[in-house]
From TrEMBL:
<protein>
    <recommendedName>
        <fullName>Ferredoxin</fullName>
    </recommendedName>
</protein>
<dbReference type="InterPro" id="IPR007160">
    <property type="entry name" value="DUF362"/>
</dbReference>
<comment type="function">
    <text>Ferredoxins are iron-sulfur proteins that transfer electrons in a wide variety of metabolic reactions.</text>
</comment>
<dbReference type="GO" id="GO:0046872">
    <property type="term" value="F:metal ion binding"/>
</dbReference>
<dbReference type="GO" id="GO:0051539">
    <property type="term" value="F:4 iron, 4 sulfur cluster binding"/>
</dbReference>
<dbReference type="InterPro" id="IPR017896">
    <property type="entry name" value="4Fe4S_Fe-S-bd"/>
</dbReference>
<keyword id="KW-0479">Metal-binding</keyword>
<feature type="domain" description="4Fe-4S ferredoxin-type">
    <location>
        <begin position="347"/>
        <end position="376"/>
    </location>
</feature>
<keyword id="KW-0411">Iron-sulfur</keyword>
<dbReference type="Pfam" id="PF12838">
    <property type="entry name" value="Fer4_7"/>
</dbReference>
<dbReference type="InterPro" id="IPR017900">
    <property type="entry name" value="4Fe4S_Fe_S_CS"/>
</dbReference>
<keyword id="KW-0004">4Fe-4S</keyword>
<dbReference type="InterPro" id="IPR050157">
    <property type="entry name" value="PSI_iron-sulfur_center"/>
</dbReference>
<dbReference type="Pfam" id="PF04015">
    <property type="entry name" value="DUF362"/>
</dbReference>
<feature type="domain" description="4Fe-4S ferredoxin-type">
    <location>
        <begin position="312"/>
        <end position="343"/>
    </location>
</feature>
<keyword id="KW-0408">Iron</keyword>
Length: 387
């Protein structure tokens, strides 16, 4: 049985969040638990979600008040605390500054790591990927505490504790992984291996204001008033997806792959939720990005063929597009999938869907939310799109 602490917190007030997190640690075992988690003066790396350069109140990134509350507690156990991330697009230092994380870190003497230096890691007990280049600062840390933001995600349906560590892959190397792992299932296996390689020790999920709809960057803020913490990343994620509307955690690709690979605790019956009752915290009318719904035919080739035909497509919201070309820039696929074409007096992206691997990097990193995911008619007929 794996413990997670589920806490209700309705404001980004640092004193209140600190109080809640202390309650959470108390439920998990108090000072003794913390001493084991953070041996005295060990090197602790905090990994917030800094997806891109976003302003302080943005629901895209981990809130600076959660970050500060975590630092206050962690600093009682170690003086060697650092933080870092590698955004999907843009400079990590600028992302840390604009989101308010850098100012907090400077006040507490927490060192910034830009995650540009990588180290090669070999993982013999992997599910899928044995060879890794990961951010040296994350790999070298004795304790890695991930601080994800609870959001929807076009490819993985949901992003939380497991997915947050994708930022431990430096810069443009992230795009390579999308090309190597074009389908969501293998991509999620890769994420699990990455967490093993980095050695993530604990997760504190910021779901005070979460993101619904066209996540992980262009959805809407949703007051979920939730913090979830625990040692098992999958148990934290499993609890989170049940709160936002997945009755079965196995309907989300990361948790399905984790369960199939026996990587962490996933099933509700194996998770002991401490603190708030899950039923009391369930969101009403949270707009999921994608809803699970597996279908199988006797012949696996038919299943795979149909999966390709029903997969959602990146689709332009014409009136929002500013013609910046970032979507074409971040697309990892070769030959070129997106070309910028003239449309009146501006440029718009045009997709060659025969080459698209549906990684949704274009959707994720469009600065104005001008790309959404849409199912084909067949996909809708098969009722895989239930939003
Ligand atoms: S879709 Fe988004 S990223 Fe692509 S050109 Fe338009 S605004 Fe830029
Ligand atoms: S067009 Fe978008 S979804 Fe398709 S491969 Fe490129 S980035 Fe991925």
């Amino acid at each position: 049985m794996e413990n997670v602490a589920l806490l209700k917190c309705e404001q980004y007030d640092v004193d209140l969040i600190e109080k809640k997190l202390r309650e959470g640690f108390e439920l998990l075992g108090g000072d003794e638990f913390l001493r084991k988690l953070i041996p005295k003066d060990s090197k602790v790396l905090l990994k917030p979600n800094m997806l891109s350069v976003e302003s302080k109140e943005s629901p895209v990134v981990t809130h600076y008040a959660v970050f500060e509350a975590v630092i206050r507690i962690v600093k009682e156990y170690s003086n060697y605390v650092s933080f870092g991330d590698s955004p999907g697009f843009g400079d990590s230092r600028k992302a840390a500054e604009k989101s308010g994380l850098m100012e907090v870190a400077d006040r507490y003497g927490v060192k910034f790591e830009d995650f540009k230096e990588s180290v090669h890691v070999r993982l013999d007990n992997s599910i899928l990927c044995k060879s890794w280049n990961v951010a040296k600062a994350a790999y070298d840390a004795d304790v890695v505490i991930t601080l994800p933001k609870l959001k929807t995600h076009a490819m993985a349906y949901y992003t939380g504790a497991v997915k947050n560590q994708f930022g431990c892959i430096p810069g443009t190397q992230k795009a390579t992984w999308h090309t190597r792992m074009p389908d969501a299932n293998n991509f999620c296996k890769m994420l699990l291996d990455l967490n093993t390689a980095v050695g993530t020790n604990f997760a504190i999920l910021d779901g005070i204001i979460a993101m619904e709809g066209n996540g992980p960057k262009s959805g809407q803020a949703f007051n979920l008033n939730t913090l979830i913490m625990g040692q098992s990343l999958t148990a934290v994620d499993s609890t989170a997806v049940r709160i936002i509307g997945y009755d079965n955690p196995l309907d989300t690709p990361v948790l399905k792959e984790a369960y199939d690979s026996n990587w962490g605790v996933v099933l509700p019956k194996d998770i002991n939720i401490l603190g708030e009752k899950l039923e009391d915290m369930k969101a009403k009318n949270f707009k999921l990005c994608r809803k699970g719904g597996n279908f199988y035919f006797i012949n696996p080739a038919v299943t795979n063929f149909l999966r390709g035909m029903i997969a959602p497509n990146p689709t332009l919201i014409q009136e929002k597009c500013i013609g910046c070309g970032r979507c074409a820039e971040v697309c990892p696929e070769k030959p070129v999938v997106i070309t910028m074409v003239k449309n009146g007096d501006k440029l718009n992206p045009k997709w060659n869907m025969n080459e698209c691997i549906r990684c949704f990097c274009c959707q994720e990193l469009c600065p104005v939310g001008a790309i959404e995911t849409k199912y084909s008619t067949l996909g809708r007929l098969l009722k895989l799109n239930k939003r």
